[in-house]
Amino acid sequence: MTTIAPRLHPTPGHPVPGGDLAALFAPRGIAVVGASRAPGKLGAAMARSLSGFAGRGGHFALVNSRDTALYPNVAAAAADGPIDLAVLCVPAPACPSALADAAEAGARAAVVCGGGFAEAGGDGIAHQRALAAVTADTGIRLLGPNTSGFIAPHAGVTASFVAGAAHLRPGKVAVVAASGGVNHALAFLFAEAGHGVSLAVGLGNGVDVTAPDVLDHLADDPETTAVALHVESVSDGPRLVSAVARLTPRKPVVALVVGRHDIGEFAASHTGNLATSWRTTRAALTQAGAVVVGDERELVDAVSALATTRLHPAADPGVGVLTAQAGPGLLLLDDLRGRAARVPELTPNTQNALSELLPPLTFQRNPVDTGRPGPEISQVFATVAADPAVDVLAAYALHEPDAIDLVAAIVGADTGGVPVVVGLGGTGEAVEAGRRSLLEAGIPATTDPRGVAAAIGALLTDAQARHREPDRPRRGQSVPDDVTGPHDENQAKDLLDRLGIATPPRRVCDSHSAARVALTELGGRVAVKVLDAHVLHKTDIGGVHLGVSTPDDLEAALRALDAVGARRYLIERMAPSGVDLVLGARRDPVFGPIVLLGLGGTTAEALADVAIRLAPVSASDAAAMPRELAGAALLDGWRGGPVLDTAALGETAAALGDLLAANPALEEIEVNPLRLTSNGLVALDAVIITHQDHKREADDAQPDQ
Amino acid sequence: MTTIAPRLHPTPGHPVPGGDLAALFAPRGIAVVGASRAPGKLGAAMARSLSGFAGRGGHFALVNSRDTALYPNVAAAAADGPIDLAVLCVPAPACPSALADAAEAGARAAVVCGGGFAEAGGDGIAHQRALAAVTADTGIRLLGPNTSGFIAPHAGVTASFVAGAAHLRPGKVAVVAASGGVNHALAFLFAEAGHGVSLAVGLGNGVDVTAPDVLDHLADDPETTAVALHVESVSDGPRLVSAVARLTPRKPVVALVVGRHDIGEFAASHTGNLATSWRTTRAALTQAGAVVVGDERELVDAVSALATTRLHPAADPGVGVLTAQAGPGLLLLDDLRGRAARVPELTPNTQNALSELLPPLTFQRNPVDTGRPGPEISQVFATVAADPAVDVLAAYALHEPDAIDLVAAIVGADTGGVPVVVGLGGTGEAVEAGRRSLLEAGIPATTDPRGVAAAIGALLTDAQARHREPDRPRRGQSVPDDVTGPHDENQAKDLLDRLGIATPPRRVCDSHSAARVALTELGGRVAVKVLDAHVLHKTDIGGVHLGVSTPDDLEAALRALDAVGARRYLIERMAPSGVDLVLGARRDPVFGPIVLLGLGGTTAEALADVAIRLAPVSASDAAAMPRELAGAALLDGWRGGPVLDTAALGETAAALGDLLAANPALEEIEVNPLRLTSNGLVALDAVIITHQDHKREADDAQPDQ
């Protein structure tokens, strides 16, 4: 027996993997290798983009052995000043030696933007391997290849060939994107939303520098207050997860994972990587504390808000909704409800105070309809913010300068530290200036109700994630660490018993007479099943007879089992009816042990309605899995049925995850069905697959995740 | 027997309901009643907003009986020129008489912006009734009350108190919003997206002018090319549906329906109306040809595209995807897949042609990764557009002026009439100017991949809707029009037989001996059920025994039925196993007869996974219902199971709808389960509820719609 060490909990004092990327993102000197004076060339575009660095007094060297006006090599450039970063603008076959030369000359970081590597197949694979070998030999840090580079405006470095990148303002938002194109697309969207960037990185093929490295770097970057993370595929799941888990207590991370639908062929052509499971990646990032969004607009809304403000950690923060127009307020409320935001009724005290401030006919319970805003609006904001149930304010108003200077009123409202998000409807320079003023005052501002809802949703998710107790060993719990296969159903259920998971009373019988005794002892109606570790799908071969209550029926059932080759029988008391769940633990090829929960039955399976956690998982975190299911209502007293004890389910799910984590030989354990009855959860069947089991049935064991 | 006349099919020559709204939206003269010179007053704001009308030479009169510098009444104003429109800025109690005075003086239309009517309760209800009485008596058309008015820039009329409304440019987009606030919010969002408005209307309480009136008006408005429709609640479902159905063949309608989640109390306080079923409203609008979207951003993307271009009607148009950067291209492809867009592999000819134009390493099958765009890009667009499988192009590129003038290249590409949507990433004036240039060239342009996907999704939905055959009577089909209750299961199944819906072979028996004969005649395994029109939930009282095959078992089953009071029995051959559906028709309080399809079982029910059509519905339209179900995969050979004949299901669903439409006394018919077997669909049970049936069980008959 052993106790599981949690993976998500960073060890204090543990050195951050990836090391220092300052040479890459804040170099003292830069050499452009393959610099060109022909305008259409990459080497020319890079030299032009980076020229601002020279203007700031950094050592900036153009290197081209075939151009006598330029440095012949990095070593020559390094003789005139420190070269930390080499920007390699040479063809793919020439890159490995250019990288080695740069390292030899003292450069500690390099960027390769060009393509022609693993994403291209053929010789490109060898070129990429050669790059990797140079980084391993020399320790030089390499960004790329196959990326449009990075932008570090605070350091004056625009290592990007995309025009316009050099005009990105320095700011507080960091972008860490799998793709160079997405990196730029997002940085530009942030600019449109009024935000500058602290650092914007496109990882490309990620030979050396990958997302965890950059995330670790950002943890200590004083300019960065929020991180936008774009994920295509994940090579090292645990490393990504632990980097995110380390960062999120300090800075919010908002993640966009591509690949919800089948984009496989095109995706493979992009970086040469296979797609990672979209669901599992999202679950892993969520568990690590990231706010996971569905598209790039939600990403911009979420990061815009989180770069400006964070809520205090809370289990379920309350939202005060203020609107100057009922119609947009309804859109906002509808959207917030879809994000499971809590919009609590305001206290009688608050409502009384509001009734003094507002016209009598408006709705004042929450949402608060301010009617046409007037000078009282500052007081209205302060009053709602002071309500003990309110942790954040969501507001929408049309720009109506005739009635009031709304921006000044909101900025001037004393909300006692309660954050505010504002949607300001309107068009033209005055409205845009208003949004900028709000943002400068620390109030995220957007153009429409949806933007407000997306921002609020992100603030809530972030606050809830930080409120979750850190994953730690389940106190006093231990799990078997000696599980080897094969397991028949009874052995599997014995194992569940040891884990504290209820199973029905049962008897293993090797004869008809023993089965008759078992029937008498168990009483009532029983299930009669073939017992054989090599039969995983008993029902398919007629190996299960339910509802047997008389010796005659028992005899008939046993003879039928004999006819399909049964040598032993499992006689088990029938469980009461209820709602069937499927709970399992398995190994994800990227993220390692995971726990999965779904509803039973083919409908749930066809919908792929499943909640996922990385294992080990705390019982309290696992207890939140059921509410993620689309069919969650079935577990909450549906039509007078039983109500799930989510804490008990959390313990069960955590135990399965611990089991897998503690037993490397264990491939998968699935409890199917795990029945929710009026007496609680009962495991009606279980399958355990170990590495030795040939994984005969792995194909159809679980819905697609 | 009768044949059903379709409701969606407009009768040629039938006068358009609602009549002429030209007096409202393009008046010759306007009187502001209650005009004020006190800046904060509504009467002052309205006078200021409308002052532009005077500047264009319209007759513009300020009326206030207490201000001797103004006209004392509308009649006096009308003496100096025609007054078509009266804008009433007087308190609610004074509005009815002011409206009557205006009508008396010859005004043919009026706007009441103020509140204090039905939404406020109390006396407001009486004030609203009084307004309605005046419109009925005088024929004057009234917009409002409780709205921020309307903007008609082509006519120079800004009947809105919202600052900034007067600056909205004339354009092609019409906004028809339930709420005055949403009307303005949307008009401003369209302005931000580069579009002017033809007309923007907030309906408010909708005492007289409602959405169908405005939609009918827009059908003949030469300025309008697309309509944004915002719906909160629907008072007259059939009228709204027929107005949309009349308009969509001529102009695209994009609809946003609020109320997916519970917003009831606040919504009721807004307009005094009860919320209409969100699902049914969306289904009805979709069926009428509208593009129904989920939020205001998708609405802006959809309308922006459809105001500029429409595809040719097609069952499943093909999308050619072009991207200059693979990463954003993946986001775009993933998003398009989520909208069920077809991205067909390009023909070998096209791929050959592309391989001449593009670098060898890029993906060229569709999506087409152009790599960094160069002068060949016009030819690339033309080549993909020429592919026979491609009906529309979706493109994304970062603004890279160093490489190419992308906007000129795209505008100059000869796509042979194939529409193009472009996402142009970047920030700053040059990029914004580029997007404007594209739009002016008839190419919808947006900032991000999601915007491209949303625009393409709208174009596809619109093209598919116009390709659907118009609803018309099912040729050669007729349905009983004499259905009265109560119906026992056998009578219900006889009715299904008459409709052409398969039912299992069965016998009605009133004695044990008759049942034994039936068992012999039917052969195999049978179901034995209590037969009683007053027992709707037979299973709950132990009234169903399945799998009976021997005389002994039959006798036991019959005795058990006798014990629960059975007087007659239904003996029925057991159907093969399969996938259970629920198919029903019922009366929606707003939209009238509807047909509903869902999967059987509690999981599907808890998910409210249901497809809805208004009845009568064509068989071909009903045949598309299954693919709208989240669990649709279960009906398409899931794990080797049967494949649904969607045409047969469409006939069945259409027949049920026709039945309800033809029988006013029929409240509901539900076939549950309708089993999909390897031999096709079989109705295993059916319940018919007529008005006389007291609707004993209506509460739990169906999932929430």
Descriptive notes:
The structure is a homodimer of 705-residue chains. The first copy, chain A, has 705 residues and is α/β, with parallel strands linked by helices. In chain A, the strands form 5 sheets. A 7-stranded mixed beta sheet of chain A has the order 7-6-9-8-10-11-12, sandwiched between helices. In chain A, strands 22, 23, 24, 25, 26 and 27 form a 6-stranded antiparallel beta sheet that branches. A 5-stranded parallel beta sheet of chain A has the order 2-1-3-4-5, sandwiched between helices. In chain A, helix 11 (296-306) crosses helix 17 (449-467) and helix 19 (512-522) packs across helix 20. The first copy, chain A, starts with 21 loop residues before the first helix and ends in a 15-residue tail after the last strand.
List keywords for this structure.
seven-stranded mixed sheet, alpha/beta, 705 residues, 20% strand, disordered N terminus
Question: What's this, in brief?
Answer:
The structure is a homodimer of 705-residue chains. Chain A contains 23 helices and 27 strands.
Low-confidence stretches of chain A: 1-19, 694-705
- Per DSSP, the total helix count of chain A is 23
What gyration radius of chain A follows from the Cα positions, in whole Å?
A: 30 Å
Structural class of chain A, by secondary structure, is alpha/beta
Largest sheet of chain A: 7 strands, mixed
Kindly state the number of beta strands of chain A: 27
Average pLDDT taken over every residue of chain A: 90
The largest chain-to-chain contact, stated as pair and per-chain residue counts, equals: A-B, 96 and 96 residues
